[in-house]
Specification:
206 residues; alpha/beta; TIM Barrel; 8-stranded parallel β-barrel; 8 helices
Length: 206
């Protein structure tokens, strides 16, 4: 299994420096990872450093809470793409889902997809959801134009679980699945891929 091409190599720390991001990009190029994943302030730098390497740039939006207004998320996504992002990882409106307003969640996702026009991953933050809410969130992603359902931000109570990936797989109608949060070694990454993940988010060098 060519693990490297599954990996979104990630640094979303609030204290990440330019030197940290330069190191992130250098490692991603050396190892042939799919993408780096960064906060919006570093997208342009990553685009510059990775141009011609085959490594893409992913940017988080509405991160890590998902509670920003839809218009703010859409602007943030459009700005990231203008700066060179190839993919957007947005955080779902978690409170709206848990509060019983699936239409708001769907419209939020659709607006960001319309604004960015690139591959859109939706982070559902599985550790805050019941199994049925994970399934519902996945079905909303399907009908809202998302491309990939992502398990976790890695900034909440817990990260990805094999159980949630299996639930997402049963409900995702062929969308991609990104497992992220707490994946720190190659064996764990491969277990998630075997469970159905098509992308792995990791800050560790796998």
């Amino acid at each position: 299994m060519e693990l490297a091409r599954y990996i979104d190599y990630t640094n979303l720390r609030p204290d990440a420096t330019r030197a940290d991001i330069e190191e992130l990009c250098a490692t991603a190029k050396e190892r042939g990872y799919a993408n780096v994943c960064v906060n919006g302030a570093y997208v342009a730098l990553c685009r510059q450093l990775l141009r011609g390497s085959g490594v893409g740039v992913a940017c988080v939006v509405g991160f890590p809470l998902g509670a920003a207004a839809t218009e703010v998320k859409a602007f943030e996504a459009a700005k990231a793409v203008a700066d060179g992002a190839d993919e957007i990882d947005m955080v779902m409106a978690i409170g709206a889902l848990k509060g019983g307003d699936p239409d708001y969640v769907a419209d939020d996702i659709a607006a960001v997809k319309h604004a960015c026009g690139v591959t859109l991953k939706v982070i559902i933050e599985e550790c805050l959801l019941t199994d049925e809410q994970i399934a519902e969130a996945t079905r909303i992603c399907v009908r809202s134009g998302a491309d990939i359902v992502k398990t976790s931000t890695g900034f909440s109570k817990a990260g990805a679980t094999l159980r949630s990936v299996e639930i997402i797989k049963r409900n995702c109608a062929g969308l991609g699945i990104k497992a992220a949060g707490g994946i720190r070694d190659a064996d764990t990454a491969r277990a998630f891929i075997e469970a159905g993940a098509t992308r792995i988010g990791a800050s560790a060098k796998l």
